[in-house]
Prior knowledge:
There is one protein chain. The protein is an alpha/beta fold. The protein has one domain: Nucleoside Triphosphate Pyrophosphohydrolase, CATH 3.90.79. It is built from 3 helices and 8 strands. The strands form 2 sheets. It has a 5-stranded mixed sheet, sandwiched between helices. Strands 3-2-7 form a 3-stranded antiparallel sheet, with no helix packed on it.
Amino acid sequence: MAISSYLRELRAKVGQQLLMLPSVSGIVCNDDDEVLLVRRSDNGSWSLPAGAVEPGEQPADAVIREVEEETGVRVAVQSIAGVALYPRTYPNGDSCQYLNVWFRCRPKSGQARVNDDETSAVGWFPARALPEMEETAKLRIKTTLNNLDGAAWFARPGEQHDALIMPGDD
């Protein structure tokens, strides 16, 4: 997966030890109630368009950038849908904990397509017929689509959620 120059420089200093990183995910829903997903090139799994927030970048700007970079679709951010912390250890041994903020978004322009080397496929999927994916992505989609009161989802103090501690989705 691509790594920013900021993270490359940071990794050069700290090696593989744990880094805590801000990240974003976009739950992009079209007028047909379909969700935009990407197939990751590193492990072949379906997931949400997502990535790290760059220094000085607002999270809403980061999700717009990430969705467009990975899918070619330009989005409008509608709301914050949730926030959670989860770990990930990469095949090379790098260890991270991502503080992920996920946003409900709607498409504004562009056609869904593979738009970078991080993705091998892009597609719209009916919410009731999603492909197999990691639990963290399922949690983000479910909490976004089932949100009836408009409040952002978060793990309540002291709660443990298996979906939040599964590695492999960023």
